[in-house]
Every structure is written in C-alpha cells, then in structure tokens.
Amino acid sequence: MTSFPRKIALLTLALLPCSLSATGEVAKERAAGLAFFESKVRPILIGNCYGCHSEQEGKRKGGLWLDRKAGWAEGGDAGPTVLPGDADGSLLIHAIRYTDEDLQMPPKSRLKADEVSILEEWVTMGAPDPRSEALAGAVRKKEIDYDEERKKWAYRPLQKPSVPGGDASGTVDRFLLARLGEEGIRPASEATPERLIRRVHYDLTGLPPTSDEVAAFLSDSSEDAFSLVVDDLLSRPAFGEKWGRHWLDVARYADSNGGDRNFTFYQAWRYRNWVIDSFNRDLSYYDFVRAQLAGDLLPWENDQQRAEQLIAATFLSLGPKMLTERDKEKLWLDTVDEQVDTMGRAFLGLTLGCARCHDHKFDPVSQEDYYAVAGIFRSTEVVTGTRNGCVNVASWIERALPVPGEEGEELKKKVERLQLAMRLTVEKSFMKKAGGKMALGNLPLAGVIYDEEDAELIGNWKDSTYSSNRFGAKYVHDDQKGKGENRAIFRASLPESGIYEVRVAYSPSGNRADKVPITVVARDGKHRVSLDETITPKIGGLFQPIGQFDFEKGGKVEVIFDTHGTEGRYVIVDAVQFISVDDIAREAMAVDAVNESDIDPLFRMSEGDLKKELNKLINDLKDEEVAMAPRDAAKAQDVHLRVRGEVNQLGAVVPRNFLKVLYDGPDPKIEEGESGRLQLAEWIVNPESGLLDRVMVNRIWLHLFGRGIVESVDNFGRLGTPPTHPELLEYLAFTFRESGGSIKSLVREIATSEAYRMSSAAAPEITEADPANQWFSRQNRRRLTAEEIRDGILFMSGELDREPAFATASKHGVDLDKPLSFAKEKKRTVYLPVARNNPATELAVFDAANPDLVSGQRSQTTVPTQALYLLNSEFIHKQAGLLGNLATQNASRPGEEVTWLYQTLLGRAPNPVELQQGLGLIADLSGGSEEKADLAVATGHLAHVLLASTEFLYLD
Amino acid sequence: MNTSCHQFDPPSFSRRTVLQSAACGFGSLALSGLAQAAGVGGRNGFHHAPRAKRVIFLFMHGGPSQVDTFDYKPDLQKRDGERLPFAPAKNLDPTATSQAKLMGSPWEFDQHGQSGLWVSELFPNVAQHVDDLCVIRSMQSKGQSHGQAVCMLHTGTDNFVRPSVGSWVSYGLGTENSDLPGFVSISPSATHGGPRNYGPAFLPAAHQATTIGRNGSLGKDSTFDFLKARSPESIQQRKLRMLQAINREHYERTQHSPVEGMIKSMEMAFRMQASAPPVIDMESEPEHIRELYGIGTKETDNFGRQCLLARRFAESGVRYIQVSTPNVWDQHGNLKAGHEKNSLAVDKPIAGLLSDLKQRGLLEDTLVVWGGEFGRTPIVQGANGRDHNPQGFCMWMAGGGVKGGLAYGETDEFGYYAVKDKVHMHDLHATILHLLGLDHERLTYQYAGRDFRLTDVYGEVVDGIFA
Question: Which of chain A's residues have a Cβ under 8 Å away from the Cβ of B146?
Fold first, then answer.
C-alpha cells in the first residue's frame, strides 16, 4: 500500500481548522483524492457493485445505492456503509474483507487483494467522492394507517347486528333465509332422518349412531326429538374427542418434534387430553386461550388448576424445531417465529410470520409490530441445553406438575436437575473441545472458564501459588511493575450466543489494586469496567461478577486486564468465567450450599458421566408428572428488529407491545423480569377487538357446514376471502362473546337450526341458482375424516376401546422416526401418537392435518392411494371379517345379515335390489356352502364392499 | 382425464386386457395421486423453452468431501498438519477454533478426459465421464447441521416447512406421462426431516413424491404401498363389481364429483394389483445393462438398482427423480475407510447411469445432479475426520443443457470458503428450475397471506454453466 494518500488524509485533518492561507493546499489534496477515486475506486465500484446497487441497473439491494455519495453515506438497511476515515469501522470494508460469513460482498466472488486495499485506502483518506446525485427516488416507507385499518370488518370491535325478521324460529335461519330471499333461492328440504342422525352423530362425536339410536330417532316424532339428540351428543365424552381434535389441528399438535431430530414429546399427551377435557366441560374459550399463552404464569387456587394451566401452556412448546441448529440464537428466534405465527393464525387469523423480514405486504402488521410481540416470546424460554449429550442438539424446558408432599418436592428437584444436567453437559462438552478449563475445582461452578494459562500475557507477569484461594494450579500478578505495559488478554469462545455474566477470579487482599481497568469486548462493542481486587469476590470468595454482556457465538469475546493507574498495588489475574444468565440461579444454589452434601454432584462430573446422567434423568422423568411447558426466561427483555429477518443483522430495539391494528391503548406495563406473556394473553382475550371471536365462530360453523362463512378460515387478512354472510358472522361472534365463550352453546344453536338439517341434495333449480352453495341453500356433503373412518369401523365391529388413553407415544422410544402402526391399537385415533414426518398410514391416506402447520381446515383429496388402502390394507380386511362374523351371528335367516350390515355401516336398511345384490355376493363367495364359517367369510366380503363404498365414506 | 378409463364394464374386465390398454396406462399412476387427483393439478406450463425435460438428483446424504473428490487443492496437500491459516466459520465445532489443523487428502488426484478436470481416485468410473460433467466447485449452503442443510437442499429453507424441489417441479410442470407421478423419490431417508424433504408442505398433496424403498435401500421386491391384493383375483373381481355398482348408484343420486373420482380410483387400484407395474420391474432389463450399473455385485448392487430404476422412471416421463444414499457420508472420523466404502458403492452405478442415459439419447434432456447437503472441512476433526462445511463445497451436473468438462467457480486455496463465482443452494435451485423451463421468480403459490416460491427472495440463475 502506498503511504501517499494516508499522509494527505492526516494532513487534511490537521489543516482543516487552519486559516484560509491553507486553502490552496486543501484544494490540491482534494484534487488528488478525487483523482484517486476516479482512477482507482470508481472502476471497482462500477465493475463489482453497480450491478445490484445503482440506478442504472434499477437495483437497490439491501436499500443501498453505491452510485452516489449520498448512497453510501445514508447507507442501506444496515445503516451507513462508509465512515470516512475509519476503514475498520466501515461496513463496506467489513463486507469486502470476506471475514464475516454473514456479510460478504460482492456476494458471488471475493475482490482481489489489491482491490480491497484500494477501497481501504480510499475510506481511510476520507472517502473523497464527487458523485453528488441526491438520494432521489428514495422510497419513503409506507406508513400503515392504523385508525383506518381498525375500521375494517375483521378488526373493528364487535357490534350487535339487527336480526332480520321472518318466519323462522331460529336466528341463524333468519339470517340465512334473508340472504337466500335476496337471491331468490329457496332452501333445500330437510334431510331424511336416517341421514340426519348419521350426520349429527359424526359431526358431534366422530362416531356413527348405533342401529338402536337410529331406530329410536326414527320412531320419535316429537318436535324436540332432534334437539334432544344434539343435547345428548354434546354431553358425551366423545364430543370432546371429536371437537378437541379440531383444535389439535389448529394447535399443530404432535407427539414428536419433527424438524431435524424427531424426538418423542413424552409429555405432549397431557395437552391433548386437556384440550379434549376442556371441550367436554365447555371451558370458556377465553380461559382456554389465555391458558395456552400464559398458563404457567396465571395465578391458581389449587393444585389441579395449577397443573391444568401449566399443561395448557404446552401449546407454545409444541412446534417443530430445528434442534441441531448450531447458532442457538437463531434456534431461539426461529422458535419465537413459529410461536408468533402460530398464535397469529390460530387465534386471530393473521399471518404474522410475514412481518419477520419486512412489513406485511398486505395486512396492517409492520415489522415493528412483529418484533414487539417477538420480544415477548424471546423472553420466554422453550429451548435449552442438550437432549442427547451432543452440544449441538438442543432440548426443551419441562416443568414439574404440582404433586402434594415430599414427593412433589422430589419431583421438582429432579426436573430442575434435568435442566441443570442439560446445561452443564453443553458447557462441559464445549469446554473439552474448546480447550478451556473445566470447573473441577472446589467450587461447583457452571458456565465456561478460562484460566490465566489460556490468556495472552503481555509484559512481565509472575506466577504465584502463594494464595491457595485460586482457580487451577496457579495465578499471576504484575509484581507492581510494568504498569501500563502489562496486560492480559482472554480470548474466549462460547457455546451459544446470548447474555453472559462475566466473572473474574482473584485472591483478594489489601495490597491489591482497587481500580483495575478491564475491557470487555462483546457483540455491541467495547465495555470498560473497573475492578476492585481488595474486596472479597462474591462467588465462593473467588469469582467476582463484573457485568452482563451480550456475546455472539463465534464473534469476538475478549476480556482484557490492563494495569494503567494501578501504581503501587498488585494486579492479580487468575481466571475468567462466562456464565449464561440462565444458569446463575441454578449455580447459586450450589455455590451457596452450606453443606457439601447439598451440592449437586452434577457440577463436578466429567463430561462422560454427565451424558450418562442426562440420559438417565430423561428416561426417569418420561413417565413422571411433568409438563412440556415453557417459562419466562431469566433475562426478559425487548429485542432488536432483525434487518431482513437475518438473525445477525440487528436493527433498532423494539419495545414489547401488542398488535397496533388491534390495540390502541397505552403501552403495556411489563415489569422488570417479566416476559409480558401474561399481558399478551389478557390482551388477546380482551373484548376490544372481535377478531378472536370471529375466527373461532367461523371455525365452528365450518365444522358443521363444511365451509366457513369466511372461507379462508386461518386468514382473515386482505388475501383471505371476505365473509359471505357478514351479519351472521357478527351475530355469532357477538352471541359467543355474550355467552362467555361457550362452544357447546354455539354448536347447539347452529346444529339445531333448520339450515343444519337441510339435505345435501337439492332440487336442480337450487343447485343451478347457487352452484357453489355460496348461500348455504343446502348442506354440504363431506367425506369422513381419517379418524372417523378408523374409529367408526372399530366402533361398528365392537373393537373400539372407549376409555381415554394417556402417554401413548412414550412406548415408541426416544424418537418417532420409524413409521408407526396402529394395527394393534383399539383406542380412539385422537389418542394415538401423531408423529411428525412419519404420520401413521391411517392418518396420512385420508388427509389428516399436517402437524407442522396451523390447520383450521383439512384438505379433502381423492387419490388412488385411498382406493388401494380400502381394497388391500390389513386393517380394513380384518375389520370386514369381524363385521362379517357379527352380521352372521345376528342373522336368524338369510337376508338378515345383509340388513344388519346396511344398518350398522350405512345407518339404513337395504332396498330390495340391494338385498338381492348382497345375498348374491354372499352366495357367490361362499361357493354354495351352508357352513356358518364359510357364510361368515363371505359376509365379511360384503362388509368389505360396504366399507369401501362411497356411501360409507361420505356424509350426505 | 381420459374418459375411457371409467367406462367400467365388469363382465369384460380382465387383467390382461387392462395390462394391454395403453389408453389408461398402468404403472404407478394410481399411486401418484396425480393422474386422478380431483382439482389439484399443477399449473402446467413453461415460462420459457426448457433445456431439460427431467432431473435425476443423486443425493449423497451426509455430505461428501469436496477436497477428496472433485476439488483438488495442492496447497492443502502441501500444508497438511499445519495450523489454520484462516479464520473458520462461526458455528463450527469448537475444536476448530482453538487448535485446528489442516488435513490433506489421503487420495491421489489426476486429470481426466479432454477437459483435464481433476478427479480423485475415489471416483475412477465417474472420472471417465468428466467431459460430460459440469463441476460446480463454489457451492454454498445454509445450515451447519444435517437437519438444516438437508432441508435447505430439498426445500430451499433451513428452518421452515416448505415444498420440496420435486414438488415445485411437479406443481409447475405436472408430469410428462399422465400415467405416472411427476415426482418420485427412491429410498428416501426417514431422518433429518424425512418425508418433509419430499413433501408438498402447503402445495396440494398430489405433489408429494411417490416413494419406493427407504433409507437408501431398495429391497429386491420393493413396491408401492398397498399394492398386494389380499384375496384371489376372482373374489376381488366379484366384490369390485358390486362395489362399483353401488358407488355408481351413489353418484347418480348425488352427482358429487369426488364420488366419481373414487369410482375411477377403485378401477385403477384394482388394475394395479395385477403385477408389479412394469416401470418398477427391473427383471426385464438385459444382463449387460444390469452389469453396467453394478447390479449383482455385492458392493454396488443396491445403489445400482436405484440408478437403474431412476433411468426407467426418467424414460417413462417422470419429471423429478431423486436417488439417495443412506446417511453414510458423514465422516467426522475415519475419513479414509468411510469415503472409500461410500464411493465404491456409488461410483460404478453412477457411471453406468451416465453411460446408459447417453446411449439412449436421454442425457441430452435429462439433468443429472450429484451432491450432498454440504461438503467437509479441509480442517481435521478428531484424529482423521472432517466436519461439515456449507461454506464451500462441490456438486456436479451432467446432461440437460449444461456444459460438460467445465469446472465452475472456486474455493480458496484450501477448499474451505467458496470465493469465486459462488453458487448458493438457492442459485442451484433457480438454475435447475430454469433448465426445466421454469422461472424461479414466477413459480409461486399463494399460502397464508402471501406468495411463496422455492427460492424465497433469493436465487440467481447460473447461466455460466449452460451449454
């Protein structure tokens, strides 16, 4: 590098404040600088940067223009690109040096070494640049007009709509009839009682009616016969099993992690059963929602309530996670993203995930809104430590459920121990690999520790073993000499990005320096602190905390001891400890223990022993009273906006808050140490906005009519579909709110309407006038769900075990990577494990919800695999055989077995033609044999035919 | 939809006539879910003239090492055992940050073909084809761990649930042969995301891959699920006759189109049970072809059969075919033994596939892609292994409109960071789509409030590799 321009720069600086006599010099230097720019710099910029950062190419990637001075001065999304005179501090130079894997420019090929030098030189000399084009065309960020948005149908407060007049007794019918009347369409007539009873049984309980139930309904001509059936079905446990499953689709419920490591969620079933139970006891929807977002933070009156609330919060932990992500901050933020997006779609029908990288393109959600909510979840701990002993494979938080007495205390300790083991295993594995010292001294320490041997000692330092209060074999001191010259630099690497407390070890004494200058280099730059080595360190008398800092894994992590200004006193350097703020409390319990026996041996275990202990603890706890619930993080705080969603591209800090489009009040009060999740939960169930109610009542409508009033059930935003019956939607939402969020009441109101009871077949003039059934002129025909097919068949064959099931996944082992078989299972499908990545065939073939995604409405595909499954699967064959046996046993003469099968499977008697068809089939396939066994086998074939029939598969 | 397919006439229906019925076709069509799927077809259309009609992706699960295969680094060889002369990536195994050393390749490299491309002795058979290979030496991807990187390679994201490349292709172009699925994955892995790597995510379910075999292994009698009938043909036929009669009556009563779809599915499903669909019947291949792929030889039999099956699918018009090794390339230790065993298993089959495609004139419009989810570090891990390296690695392509005998891009002198003409996994995806006639910026699907695409907001077509 030539030294010429550098000198000019220095001269320029020196001369700037000088008198006018120097202007000639300045002009000359400026000319030289500009010449340098023209001859050396501009060609590099044109050749390598203009492609993506110039007006002529019409590209301004990252918001940055490099074809004008104002472009780099203002900078792009990440702030000013060039700081004149400061090459090391300029983003441009940082990027072209190619030392930061997250920011390398030009993106495709590194500049040649001499080109990098030229640009460094140019910045150092003050970045002379004659290109004076203005930042014209700079796009002002479009501001969201929240006041205007809040008036839109989806976001505005609930309003009680006026109910149309008319003859219909029910309000729902009045709304529908009024609309049909406007269109000049008459509704379809009522479905036949056989079809109606089959429909309502499946819709409300997921099971078919028995022949006796069908007969009873058919013979009951009283006016309230149907509503009595509805009441009866609502009171059955099967209601929660059916409707709980609807919610589990929305909650992306699964019994394994999916993602990259498909670990079994041993405790997820508790949430599943809680959901089923909540629907059965008609828990208020608002309590239901609140508990899922903040159950772990809610007050409780008794152990049972506490347990239920903790279990409900499992909702937040259930998502698929990339547990092997090595950048744990990214893992944490990805987990937050999954939570924010799930919360948005599950409760509010909003696609919040879109705003992680930029303002939502269509809906009134800004990137600030996103990070305001993300801060709340970032302050919530879900992922932690390691699951399997490998430093890269994270685990998740579990909480002990309240268990009375000593047992409960034991359990709590065990759970806490598991978390500790997870953390310590990461740290010790890391220390072993990183070459630092393990905390195997007397103190039961966590975190990672670097001894003075690991430090670069500059100047003269003396080894000492004088004080036995030390870390490792020895410590060093400066012998009161070389003040200002002597320095000690600890260069550390850390297992995860995050907030760490830094502690330094020294043996205190009155002759030590009381103002040791220490510099800590963290993610956000250098921090200077002063250490008093005369006082006794707080941690075990050896380690003294000097502050908490934000460090980036793989970034610069340095602690530098200086000796300036410590004349006449000793500076001691012994060790530096970095402890994650999440571990401080756990460690303190051990350090502060009065008795040696109170110190957990985990602290002093070798890495190998820790791994073994970890496995043992996981295994010991898998059947214990434990919930997969999160908790508030040790360090609750606002987060930085991430430019373009990139974890390491920090923008401004965004205070935690609610979504502006749904909230117009003062900033929420979030106390120090609180995540804000409790406030968020209270806000979301607040009646101020009706969105929560609208989304839920629409889903309930969907499950009874096959289509939502808003067809895009999980998206109430601009790209969703508007409601076909806005007043009806508003009425339902309003009624729902007034009822205190009673789902059963709403189901009852809709199911007992005349509209619900309509036939799915309608006269041609109706289907012509309303071809897509936009106006609900008839019922929608629907296929049975995967669960209804399996449960229904088991129910009819008498094999279904109606009792609830519990931890059905744990017997499959530590992960669910092998395909599950339900062949031997007899419980209802809702209780069987949902394996992410490996759904059981019975679920996958008939469009069960994808547990990776919020799924308010399942797709209904018709694919040949379904036909193959119906023809050839072991399950259908076996069940058909059982049904054949039952039919034969129930028949006292030929023909009765056919009737029995029709009544049991299709809920109706066969007509004469069908009866003959059935008998013909039995005759053909029994080969004319009169043997009971042969007849039963042949009857089984008839059962198989009916099970594979479309009439069985569809609800008309 | 071919209407003749549901003119179902039970008395005259026999397996033989159906087998011969070209109109309705045969094979795995019914499994694809595509031929019969009601209302879930793709957008079916090119954005521009395609250079390739189909893709065979040879996935080396675990991450083969670039510096031991196709990216020759003399400097690395010379400085074997020296301390790292560069700063390693941020999320590397911590050993690399404190005491990392370089490790030269234990294998010899040689130049091959007219082009003189370097290939190590691990791939003697593939080396014979270098003049057909376009070796991209400057690959980069996202994800330091398998889970993320495997997901990135298959779906263009390291953390979200998104459709697989093959699903996008199936959605974009449908299938060349309406009797076959657009996307087939042969022996896909159950781990590192498993089915989500060949799943449709939010695209219609029909664009999921049809799979055969599992976890890098293709058993001799591998077939599709539920293909085996459980009772004799005569009984099945008798039952089907009644079933279709009552189903048709149901359809007449309801006029519900999915009911009609199910009627058609039933017919097709019944036909499929007749025998293994010809497309997966490799017994019909002559001995010299089987030998070409290394079938019958212990070490190469499994992967050879996978490659041969891939050719058969390609020939029959499947758009996107993936072949996967088991997760065997992950040599954190024992690099020498591991890579030798792995390359032995795939070298001859891959060379056989290239020869076979070529002799059939299929290589011209079939894009063959080879590679793992990432490469490996030139830095030693433990005593004799290498860690993951998404910062720089190589993949190669052949046929389908790419320039043969070309080495594109460079890593640094040690093979660690890609530094010249970098090709990010997003760029590779954009390029594959481009070669198939699809514009990665226009192949979109609306879901959850916005348009999604395979390359998200990234990806540039690498036109420097086009023939």
Answer: 260, 324
Q: How far apart are CA A233 and CA A240, in angstroms?
A: 10
Whether A325 and B148 lie within 8 Å, measured CB to CB: yes
Q: Whose CA is closest to A600, among A410, A388, A417, A400?
A: A417
Q: The CATH number of A425-601 is which of 2.60.200.30, 3.40.50.300, 2.60.120.260, 3.10.180.10?
A: 2.60.120.260
* Tokens standing for residue A136: 């014209």
Q: Are A800 and A787 in contact (CB under 8 A)?
A: no
Residue A436 CA: distances (Å) to CA of A390, A428, A470, A540, A907: 18, 9, 16, 20, 73
Which one-letter DSSP state was computed for residue A316? H
Asked if the Cβ–Cβ distance from A260 to B193 is below 8 Å, we say yes
Residue B120: phi, psi to the nearest 5? -80, 170
State the smallest CA–CA distance between residue B396 and chain A in angstroms. Answer: 18
Answer whether A433 sits within 8 Å of B94, measured CB to CB: yes
Secondary-structure percent of chain B, ordered helix, strand, coil, rounded to 5: 35, 20, 45
For chain A, domain boundaries? 4-124, 150-234+699-781, 284-403+631-684, 425-601, 872-955
Task: Quickly tell me which residue has 């380690």 as its tokens.
Answer: A543
* pLDDT value of residue B195: 83
Under CATH, what is the fold of the domain B30-227+276-465? Alkaline Phosphatase, subunit A (3.40.720)
Model pLDDT for residues A218-251, shown as the tens digit of each residue: 999 999 999 999 999 999 999 999 999 999 999 9
Contact A253, A318 (CB under 8 A): yes
Own/partner long-range contacts of B235-240 (Cβ < 8 Å, ≥24 apart): B235/A925, B235/A941, B236/A871, B236/B270, B236/B273, B237/B10, B237/B13, B237/B270, B238/A921, B238/A924, B238/A925, B238/A941, B239/A921, B239/A925, B239/A941, B239/A944, B239/A945, B240/B10, B240/B266, B240/B270
pLDDT, position B261: 85
Farthest-apart Cα atoms in chain B, separation: 81
Rg over CA atoms, chain A: 35
Contact A859, A710 (CB under 8 A): no
Crossing angle of helices A874-889 and A786-796, rounded to 10°? 30
Q: How far apart are CA A864 and CA B270, in angstroms?
A: 10
Strands B183-186 and B210-212, bridge-based pairing: parallel
For A456-510, write each residue's pLDDT tens digit: 999 999 999 998 888 888 999 999 999 999 999 998 888 888 899 999 999 999 9
The 3-state DSSP class for residue A695 equals: helix
Q: Is the peptide bond before A106 cis (omega within 30 degrees of 0)?
A: yes
B282-340 pLDDT, tens digit per residue, is 888 999 999 999 999 999 999 999 999 999 999 998 999 999 999 999 999 999 999 99
- Chain A, 91 to 120: residues with Cβ < 8 Å from chain B are 98-99, 101-102, 107-110
Q: Which of B385, B388, B333, B392 is nearest to B103 (CA)?
A: B385
Name the residue ranges covered by the structural domains of chain B: 30-227+276-465
For residues A898-924, give the mean pLDDT: 96
Residue A74 has what pLDDT?
A: 85
Please provide residue B406's backbone torsions phi and psi, each rounded to the nearest 5 degrees. -115, 135
Q: Does A923 touch chain B (CB under 8 A)?
A: no
Q: Quick one: how far is CA B57 from the chain centroid?
A: 3
CB contact, 8 Å: A499 with chain B? no
Q: Is residue A783 less than 8 Å (CB to CB) from chain B?
A: yes
d(CA A897, CA A923): 12
Summarised one tens digit per residue, pLDDT across range A436-455 is 554 445 678 888 888 898 88
How many whole angstroms separate alpha carbon A463 and alpha carbon A470? 12
Helix/strand/coil percent split, chain A, to 5 = 45, 10, 45
